[in-house]
Write a structure and sequence with these properties.
This protein is α+β, with helices and mostly antiparallel strands and 198 residues long. It is built from 8 helices and 8 strands. A 4-stranded antiparallel sheet has the order 1-8-3-6. The chain has a 4-stranded antiparallel sheet with strand order 2-7-4-5. The mean pLDDT is 84.
Length: 198
Amino acid sequence: MQEFVQYLLHLGTLSKQEIDQISSIAIHRHLKSGEYFSEAGKTTHEAAFILKGILRVGSYTNSGQQTTLYFVAENDFVIDMEVLPYQPPLSEYAQSVMKTELAIFPAAGLQSLSSAIPIWDTVFKQIIARTLLDKAARITPAVPEDATTRYKDFLEHHSSIASRVPLGILASYLGITQQSLSRIRKQLARRQPPHYGR
């Protein structure tokens, strides 16, 4: 949980006692590859801090096909917005793409912190704002860039994720078929300059 402590310290001036109190409501949960943290149409009333692993957040098309919107990896939050005072429809799901370890914060526990820690509401608003900003930055751009450009941009900004996400899921995120992504990767590999030993 040291990463979670560091995350909190960047958001506000919290004492060790307050950090211990926040950490005490966390419930550790392990997800297998393919297991869901949240499902479309269902409510978890939880926030999750990713300790290890990757979640993909996606939705369903009108034809029922899954589409990947963005990925969330270590040291970031995934929040079921039902923990907030307003309750928008839950149309997205969050699914692990590998073995993933989460620190789960139930809504009831988060609410109890409001009366126990004076600065908590401000800190939690910052967590929500940061989560929403990260979400907006991670969603595949709507601009009609070619698939190769989208893939290269993903590699540039999310290299630590790209090597760990299954090819089919990454293709879904990029809006292309798995075969097209395989072809793009081969083309880019051929363009790499050769490495000569000394």
